[in-house]
Automatic annotation (TrEMBL):
This is LUD domain-containing protein. It holds the Pfam family LUD_dom. It comes from the Bacteria. InterPro entries: FTHF_cligase-like_sf, LUD_dom, NagB/RpiA_transferase-like. Residues 49-212 form the LUD domain. It comes from Streptomyces cylindrosporus.
Length: 214
């Protein structure tokens, strides 16, 4: 018997005495918590997202749609990026202003190979203003989870206001729980017992978020 079968067996035994007409879980649990904290305009929500992203030490840039290609090209140049990982569904026009070699996201990628890549550029599923969190769901314009965890520099594009929500409850309503969700609140960091902060341990050392809108 596998571990999976053992766990599922325990779940079935625990549920054996539950009546078939019992109240469904989604109705039985009272959800009276606040859906968002305070009332904000769309512009204020985007401003809060930018503020909280910066508080988590992400580098935030804001630009209109027409300048996105130039901004991404400038950020890669400033980083000195010679190679950049590209998800299969990323808008090819976003990288038109860079001479960096574009490395396609492939199932054959190895951690060692990705570690030698300078940067990665992705879109996102959405962003949460109150927590300063970017959520990726593995869609074609975001690629596999590994490409956003190994390279040291991640440029993530957020379309505002369409991809910005105020709170976690609002985010969960829009996300597909069956997809591989990655929640990012600033660059990867950890602290040792003396609270010395070290960045880049579990993911990119530098996270740059481009908030692009009309």
């Amino acid at each position: 018997m596998s571990s999976r079968e053992r766990v599922l067996g325990r779940v079935r035994r625990a549920l054996a005495d539950v009546p078939k007409d019992d109240t469904p879980y989604e109705q039985a649990v009272v959800r009276e918590y606040l859906r968002e904290h305070g009332e904000r305009s769309v512009a204020e929500t985007v401003d809060l997202l930018a503020e909280n992203l910066a508080d988590y030490r992400a580098v935030v840039h804001r630009c209109p749609q027409g300048e996105l290609t130039a901004v991404i090209g400038r950020l890669l140049a400033e980083r000195g990026a010679r190679t950049v990982v590209v998800p299969p569904g990323l808008d090819v026009g976003w990288l038109a202003a860079t001479d960096a070699e574009q490395v396609p996201d492939a199932g054959s990628d190895t951690p060692d190979g990705l570690d030698r890549v300078d940067s990665v550029v992705t879109a996102c599923a959405l962003a949460i203003a109150e927590t300063g969190t970017i959520v990726l769901d593995g869609s074609p314009d975001q690629g596999r989870r590994r490409i956003t965890l190994v390279p040291d520099h991640h440029i993530c594009v957020v379309r505002v206001p369409d991809q910005v929500v105020s709170s976690v409850p609002q985010a969960l309503e829009r996300l597909d729980p069956a997809r591989p969700l990655t929640w990012i609140s600033g660059p990867s960091a950890t602290s040792d017992i003396e609270l010395d902060r070290v960045e880049g341990v579990h993911g990119p050392r530098t996270l740059e978020v481009v908030l692009v809108g009309e």
